[in-house]
């Protein structure tokens, strides 16, 4: 490797790793600064890969022992490239997934060429090559087998993380001991193999979902104009003194017209509103309806409306008692009783019914 090319490759790769580390400090991948730094890191990795290909840094005629300890780290170029490409927020998600998938494939291919993959990872890689768009880590449908596979891979990844942490605890030994530095790079490569297969599984699932989605129609002039207004508001030449939009604009946006169709199904969202005072007064009330009057008030109101009839019952069959102090009422009651006696004497019981008497 020429000296200036070695320096250029090292500086580009180191810059890409630093920028990749800095991306972890962002809270959202949708941030514009995040996407700018992401694009810069991807460019550094692309240039690093081009330099490595141009100088034939890795060859199929070599073994892993033939690669120097300082050059082993460049095996991770394609892994970093795939990992960062997945975080790209480009509109064409299918294209982003394919680019990341190709980077991961190059990473596994070169590791398989140098026989870095373990026996289980080698079988997994061969299965991926055979069923690229249908790849899944959990190949079996048996729940027990899937659980055992998941636990096994989790334990392997945990052990690799622990090994990597132990190797990075003493930075001085990495600069002085070439074997320790080599073990560090190999441990990082082995850990990223697990991450690569997991990412390929996720990519296959996401591509399957995107395949089932209807294609996005190309944007015409009207759609682009609407997108502009949504982002930046109305243009100056669209100024109007109207506070509310015109009826034609409401029809265009689907905010006017009938609410329900003939079958009674809603055609557009709507909200049922009540009076503001009623809503305000019912904020801190109980969930159930509270009484508005007492029982006595209710009975008085019903009596006033004629809902209650006086009289009747057992008391209505009893004659009213005449006061002893009221002489006129007592004389009238006495005369009434005498007249009744005279009537009964003159008209004995059954005297009126003489037709059928035998």
Structure description:
The protein has 358 residues and is mainly α. It contains 14 helices and no strands. Helix 1 (3-22) packs antiparallel against helix 2 (32-54), helix 2 runs antiparallel to helix 4 and helix 5 packs antiparallel against helix 9 (178-212). The chain is rod-shaped, with a radius of gyration of 47 Å. The relative contact order is 0.05.
Give a brief description.
With 358 residues, the protein is an all-alpha fold.
Features:
358 residues, mainly alpha, 14 helices, rod-shaped
The portion of residues forming beta strands comes to under 5%
Structural class based on helices, strands and sheet pairing: mainly alpha
- Strands, count: 0
Assign a percent range to the helix content. 55-70%
Query: What is the count of DSSP helices, taking H or I runs of 4+ residues?
Result: 14
Shape: rod-shaped
Largest sheet: none
User: What low-confidence regions span 5 or more consecutive residues with pLDDT below 50?
Assistant: none
Mean pLDDT, nearest integer? 80
Distance between the termini: 153 Å
As a whole number of angstroms, the C-alpha radius of gyration is 47 Å
Give the ordered list of helices and strands.
HHHHHHHHHHHHHH
Oligomeric composition of the shown chains: single chain
């Amino acid at each position: 490797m020429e000296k200036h090319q070695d320096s250029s490759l090292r500086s580009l790769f180191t810059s890409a790793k630093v920028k990749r580390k800095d991306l972890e400090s962002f809270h959202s991948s949708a941030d514009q600064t995040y996407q700018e730094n992401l694009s810069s890191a991807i460019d550094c990795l692309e240039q690093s890969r081009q330099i490595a290909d141009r100088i034939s840094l890795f060859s199929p005629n070599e073994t892993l022992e033939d690669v120097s300890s300082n050059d082993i780290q460049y095996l991770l170029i394609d892994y970093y490239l795939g990992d960062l490409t997945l975080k790209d927020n480009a509109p064409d998600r299918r294209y982003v997934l394919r680019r990341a998938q190709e980077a991961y494939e190059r990473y596994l291919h070169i590791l398989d060429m140098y026989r870095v993959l373990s026996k289980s990872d080698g079988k997994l890689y061969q299965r991926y090559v055979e069923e690229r768009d249908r790849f899944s880590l959990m190949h079996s449908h048996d729940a027990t087998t899937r659980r055992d596979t998941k636990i096994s891979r989790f334990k392997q990844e945990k052990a690799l993380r622990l090994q990597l942490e132990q190797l990075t605890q003493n930075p001085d030994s990495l600069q002085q001991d070439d074997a320790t530095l080599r073990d560090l790079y190999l441990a990082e490569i082995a850990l990223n193999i697990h991450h690569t297969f997991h990412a390929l599984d996720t990519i296959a699932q996401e591509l399957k979902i995107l395949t089932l989605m209807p294609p996005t129609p190309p944007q015409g002039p009207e759609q682009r104009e609407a997108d502009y207004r949504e982002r930046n508001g109305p243009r100056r030449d669209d100024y109007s003194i109207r506070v509310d939009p015109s009826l034609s604009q409401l029809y265009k946006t689907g905010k006017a017209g009938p609410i329900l169709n003939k079958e009674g199904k809603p055609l557009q969202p709507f909200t049922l509103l009540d009076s503001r005072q009623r809503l305000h007064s019912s904020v801190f009330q109980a969930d159930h309806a509270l009484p508005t009057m007492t029982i006595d008030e209710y009975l008085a109101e019903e009596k006033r409306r004629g809902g209650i009839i006086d009289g009747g019952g057992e008391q209505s069959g009893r004659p009213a008692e005449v006061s002893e102090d009221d002489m006129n009422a007592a004389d009238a009651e006495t005369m009434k009783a005498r007249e009744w006696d005279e009537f009964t004497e003159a008209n004995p019981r059954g005297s009126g019914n003489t037709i059928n008497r035998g």
